Amino acid sequence: MSDATISFGQTTNRFGRNPSETIEQREEKPQPGVRAKTARELYFETKSSVSMEFPFWYTRRWEELEGEIPMVRRGEALKAGFEHLTPVIYPGELLVMGKASYLRGSYPLPWLSESFFMAAEDKLYKEALESGKLTADTFTTVGKGGGNVTKSIGNVISIAGKFGLRVEEVPVMLAVARKWKDKSVDDIGHKYEQLVPGYKEKEAIMRSVICMFDSGYTLPQGREVINYYYPLQFGIDGMIRICKEGIAESAGFPDMDRIYFYQSGLKVLEGIQKWILNYAAETAFLAKIETDEKQKTEYNEIHDRLTWISSKPPRTFHDALQVIWLFHVAVLNEDAISGLSPGRVGQVLYPFWQRDMKNGVIDKVRTVELLECMRMKFTELDCFASMGVVGGVLSGNTFNNLCLGGLKKDGSQASNELEMLILEAGIRCDTPQPTLSLLYDEKLPEEFLLKGVECTKIGTGYPAWVNNQVAMEFLMGNYAHEGMNLEEARAWSIGGCLESSPGSWMPLELDGEVHWIPGGSAPATSVGVHFLSLPKILETVLFDGLDLRTGERIFPSHGRKLENYKELWISFKEYFHRAVYVLTLTNNIQHDAWRKIAPSVVNSMLKPDCLKRGKDIGQMGSRYNTTFNIESTGTANLVNSLASLKHNVYDRKNFSLEEYREAIKANFGFKTAQETGSFSLVDQVATEEYHKWKRIHKMSLEAPKYGNDDSYVNDIMRDWENWFCTMGKDFRSLYDQPLYACQISVSTHGPMGAVTMATPDGRLCGTTFSDGSVSAYPGTDKNGPYALFNSATCWNHSLSQNSQLNMKIHPSVVKGREGSRKFLELIRSYLRKGGFHVQFNIVDSRMLKQAQEEPDKFRSLLVRVAGFTQYWVELGKQIQDEVIARTEYEEL
Amino acid sequence: MEKPELTGGIIFDIQGFSVHDGPGCRTLIFFKGCSLRCAWCSNPEGLNQYPEPLYNASKCIFDGLCIDACPYHAITSAGDHLIFNRDFCNHCTSYNCASACCTDALRIAGNFIDTEELFLKIQRDRQYWGSNGGITLTGGEPFLQPDFAANILKKCYQSYIHTAVETCGNIPWENIAPSLSYIDWIFYDLKHPDTDRHFSMTSTGNKLIFENAIRLSKNFKGRMIFRMPVIPGFNDDAQTIASLSEFIHTTGRDEINILPVHHLGREKYNLAGRNYYTDNFNIPGKEEMNNIRNLLEDKGIHCYIGSDTPF
Hints:
The complex is a heterodimer of chains A (about 900) and B (about 300). Chain A is of the alpha/beta class and about 900 residues long. The radius of gyration of chain A is 27 Å and the shape is globular. In chain B, a hairpin with a 7-residue loop joins strand 1 (about 10-20) and strand 2 (about 25-30). At the A-B interface, helix 28, helix 31 and helix 32 of A face strand 1, helix 4 and helix 10 of B.
């Protein structure tokens, strides 16, 4: 009898037929217009593609200018890159220009890091010769479907399991990469970070995946809000004029460092101008050969628009939309960036739109069409990074977060008619980008909120619902010493998936009237310590500083017997503190290398007050600079594990700590997730050994769990949060500022769970952690959403840059008009209690399982992961399993 | 064995964020125990008034721990599944079997909850209902535990919480009366206007139910909506609907919510050790539901299908 295989969550029952598997569909929604529909079909057929154009010209110019001041050299190199981008325009497009010459194009940035290509050199050559091999990183899975090029096919070589590169460009890539050997941000940073005492510990931390990845050379920019004010107000010629004036003011004066920034900016602006004019020339050519009269006219209109905005400020809403899009791409092209958020676009563009509406230049139908085209452009964006970053963190997403709602400068509600249309376009053209966030404030009108609900309901996962007041409170607390005040706090927006980022009000003058528009005014707000695995740190505490998986020593022995809970808790804090300390120092060095070798030019010019100060972002040119953080993953698993140990070992004394160590080593008698091929707890399979461990496993699973409004666990959660959210003050960032807590998991809970042994809360080895930071571990929140809300708000969310709550709701619950109203009540009630953020998957889990089996039939299925919406088929299996396993709120 | 004296009652679930059983977002409290035995019941674990084991054979590893733990020796192994002598289970208050089980194969449906404790949970949920929300007592049959129902309703009502009850009506009037002034809203279930037909599917005639319906209609000041599950071949024919409308007219109320029967509770029958006889019922389609609605609307009765009730 003992050989029975058991499995959690199995629904088959041998004493009766199974319930019929009727899948509840999502609510029906209106479809996109012809243009967006065509563009989307094209997008579905397109693979992520890499082109070497930009890096080739960048590197070539960089080499030519050896000995030049680095800031100017950088500007010239960027200029060369922009000038040489081949323009490609697709029929029917209303907005043009893109990152590279492919539809889903991107390119490597070897000046940040080239080691990835160097390490893969042999392999790449080999693959170029005998294509058809699968690249696979050990612990990260990239989605197998959709636009990912998971293996080399024909003349296309797969890179990082996601990007395709033409065979003939492989030698170019390697040649360019070789030029950056020992000169890239990665290499220079690495050379100097070794000078940090305790560097060996840092390496061990990275190897054990206690920390997910380095900061300085991976994604040095992003998780911030772009500011479109300067190009909208002054046009490119105006910005060039500002640079020239800046040079004239500072040349020869003691602060003449400024001239290099202005000179660099000047060069880049010239490059961007040329880039736009290249597109204009291409449209002129296309217009000439086009036979269809309507298309010909459209080409001519685009030609006229591009020519105009290549030097002057925009005249119309359509012009302005084209301007913000091209500057968005221009920033993305200077660095490896994910999470560059357009911010509150509906409010930035409102003055233009309002004027056009008044003058009869545009109507609502045309506006929605344009906004749909904008969605397609953002969706086509790709970000080139290594597999660990693309799969493990981003899930292929670029996090261009567009925010709606919030408050105006004077404190009145900020939503407007254009934002209603942005939501409408989001409903019609449901694509991952830009993802939407609704900055919820009590002052927002009901009609606007219900439109937001309508959009969330159709299953796109956006808008996410974010608490305006909580964020403002965080900003006031964190940036007060840099001059943040109430008025300025209202200009905030989400940068990236869920990072509260400071903004500023900019005086946009139109027809003699000043409109205060919001825009970002800080650099990347999540750089620093990238993702610390809380459960893994607890593991090292239990095993006295060792990584149980590899046997390697990570931290020096704490030497404690852990005889009471207090000792355990102190040891945990000690190790966590140590990890943050060493990682902060090494990451500061990497970021210093970044600001010296590849400083930001385009983004700096846009951010107030860089142009005024003549300083780039790296020299603290922007208004707010307290932007380094400490990110955490696996909060619920940590809290549940601490609760389980406290309950079972210290309070009830059911087991000794030694018994727990043995049980963890034995994985509670289960196979590992790698062996079973599923990363969700419910699919794990027991071995013969299970009977030995079943009691301790059962009691671990039954120990108090986070998410059930149990004060036993809430107290542990609150202790952790109160400590974590303030301990960042013990450290100094590169900009000599304290650090803050950032609590989003993005996709790191997959790969980090994969390298972590079983945890004392009953979670098994290799399975995915809980997502977000206030989400419950799947299946453990047994008392419904209200109990979960109470647990989630047991601490003050404004202490942290964010908190993240993911919920899965069955479509039947929120169906119809009543469903919409009640759904809004649910969302609102959580935010009113002080929750910072909540987002939803409105989907039947059975549909997701079916989609896992037949991905081809579900090419357009969107799901919400953690702070972003993505095509199901482009997600890694670890994350797919986790989304399926999430507790589903359903009513029968 | 004597049952313990109750200062609270036995429930088998509390469900927050319910959207179909009354105005606003609500918390449902499922009372355990019912005086009808409807063949289509979707909550079979709510029929008995006392906590009982639910057994999922597919999760069982047959290590015999529950067999050894049972004080009544009520569990025997049949090789690939366990057999429970449920006559004993109904008297058991130890629940040792579920405590001994390591795999989730055994759990207990139903638990005793103190009125105070329940009220604390309601107060917690209250923060999240938003406007118009409240509690709905359902089950099972709430009025089978009349003191408990009255206590919790009174407490909520006096704390300005909106209260609703869903009842099958098959209980003495004395069970309803003490609660009556603390209820804002009632869903009153009807199954069939003909008592013999009623008996054939619910093991009870409908006399008491229909008497109570009339009495309640006259005495209850709040909104009262009838509810009827539509069972094809049982109560969906024109004649039944006609006599049903006639009856509704006599009550003076004019609203009914009709619900298509479903088979989603089937799995729970296996767990509770009951046989599911209802597979031969077809699930009524959209058109059939619309036809019934039209018949009722023609008689001047407002009829809502499924979750379309306007609150």
